[in-house]
Amino acid sequence: MKTKTRTRIYRIAALLGVAVVAMALTRLALSQAEGGNRFQQFDKNGDGKVTREEADNADWFDTLDSNQDGAITRLEAAGAALSAAKSKLAARLGTDSVQAYRKESTGPVPLSDSKAFSDLRFTRDWLPGTEDRHGKLMTGTECNYLVAHQGKLYAAIGVWNIDTAKGPNPGPGILSKSAADAPWEVDVQFHPRNVRVPVLASLTFGTDVEGKRLEPPVTLLMSGSGSFEHPGQITVQVRDDAQGIWVPSFVGSSQGVRSFEVRHLAVHRDRVMGVDRVIAALTSGSVFSGGYDAGAPGRIRWNPEPELSGRLARIMSCGSANGDAYVAVDITPDSPKNGGLFRRVDGTQPRWEWIGEWGHRHHHQGVAWVRGLTSIPDPVQTDKDLLLACREVDGVIEAIDPQRNYEARVEFDLRKHFGGLVGAREGQRVTTIFAYNEMTPAVHPDTGERVHLIGGGVMPGLSGDGADAKGAWYLVRHADGRYSTGRVFDPDVIPTAHGGLRCVRTICVSPFPEDQGRVFYFGGYDGGDLGTGMKHRDTAWIYRGALNGN
Questions:
Q1: Which one of 44, 54, 389, 537 has the minimum C-beta count within 10 Å?
Q2: Within 338-465, where are the H helices?
Q3: What is the largest CA-CA distance in the chain?
Q4: Percent of the chain residues topping a pLDDT of 70
Q5: Is it the case that residue 85 has pLDDT exceeding 50?
Q6: Which secondary-structure segment (H or E) carries 302?
Q7: Would you list the domain boundaries of the chain?
Q8: Whole-structure pTM value
Q9: Is-contact 453 507, C-beta < 8 A?
């Protein structure tokens, strides 16, 4: 058979397959028409919306009210019908979704009796859409990172899906706060063609690039950025604290690199060379490294050749355990071993070895495999570490044991826990994203209890119009492996953004001495359009959470 003929047949077969699925979906959607026609029956005033009162407070109201604004539109009703149709088709095809809530799931939900950090009192600390004391506009759709550095607090603010019809796009930027009672102000603004500051990290170097000990150690505030300011270059921005400016540090050429956004930055001590290396992980699946050099631009000398490349998906997490550096690359279903967990093999010619991958494979590229790789003590071998990670698609937090051939054990079932909290129906789709960027360690100042604070988002959310219902969730992981739940909201502020606060992306312990470890800053929102094409404006948020008495 000739190649052109074979290709034509394959295309026709593919189109027929799409047509069959489309016909099945259409028939299933039409089967919901009877329920859809009831919309007019409930829309008693004919304004194109069904309110809770018009629905007689029916138990199905919150499910159809997808944006939780207190009214169901025709679009929401049609979307629910199509969703039900898709669920029926999936059942027929045997593709049961792992994202469904099951009340009787066997997944673990070990809840703690401790109230430590779960009952913080929150107040809004920053109002987007305002100007700082220098007249610079502070706006954004997401607060991606909060980082303490040299006694100050810095916030990375993104502009993904910003609504320019309602105002200008100043570009993503970094805000700073110099004291507990000081206002936020713009520290740097990046090119508007960038959508966010993908990473912000305060990194400490104990040696220079040659291995010479630094006395005292040097701490740099570094951020990832796009390359629109410097075309053709993979760029990291480094703050010069003495001058209060940001200096570009060129990692390497972006030619041939699929995506040049630096997604993670971390310092790793090479155990063979005895040198502190900064690890820069890109969304393209590449890893570069550099060392401290006082004479180099941005004080970092980079190796221009990547240590890891050829990955087909994003690096979504970076961490360390037992002196080893790790990165987690998204799983690509049609390319086994291309994604998963990788460990750095130190030495004169460092490389990254593939460890393995866990979880379900899904029929689309770029499955976000794990977020928030974090080191925790091994409860059995107390001088060793485990890795804690959140598997986004499967909705679980796992402990990974390097001492036992990287055996993975589900520690907490996010979907089961939050499905119950938000009142999800059996079999309803529940989406959870936790540990967007980090799991923040904290110590209770009164009891000395050690925990990790893990922010995230849950869909569907709580019903209602109050500030608490429009808040955002976070988890407190206690040292014994049990969890408690907290909710970020200021009772005096009702968010107007779609979904309220929507999610916690970042948590930081206050660096201000007067707070004495009793105050925590939370930031967030997710600028995704949820498939609707919606834009956002002034939805990024920063809240201050205080322990009792502060």
A1: 44
A2: 414-421
A3: 80
A4: 82
A5: no
A6: strand 300-302
A7: 3-93
A8: 0.82
A9: yes
Measured between alpha carbons, how far is 374 from 318 in angstroms, rounded to an integer?
Answer: 8
Which phi-psi region, left, alpha or beta, contains residue 312 (left: φ > 0; alpha: ψ -120 to 50)?
alpha
Please identify which residue in the block is written with the tokens 């000081």.
182
Single-letter code of the amino acid located at 255: Q
33-68 pLDDT tens trace? 444 455 666 777 778 788 867 776 554 565 566 566
* Average pLDDT of span 412-425: 95
Q: Determine whether domain 3-93 maps to CATH 2.60.40.
A: no
pLDDT in tens, 137-147: 999 999 999 99
Tokens read off for 333: 């279903």
pLDDT score recorded for residue 303: 96
Question: Helices in 317-475 by DSSP H: which ranges?
Answer: 414-421
DSSP run (H or E) holding 34: helix 33-42
Distance CA 530, CA 281 (A): 27
Residue whose C-alpha is closest to residue 486's, from 504, 466, 505: 504
Is 189's pLDDT higher than 60?
yes
Task: Give the 3-state DSSP-derived string for 35-81, with helices as H, strands as E and coil as C.
Answer: HHHHHHHHCCCCCCEEECCCCCCCCCHHHHCCCCCCEEEHHHHHHHH
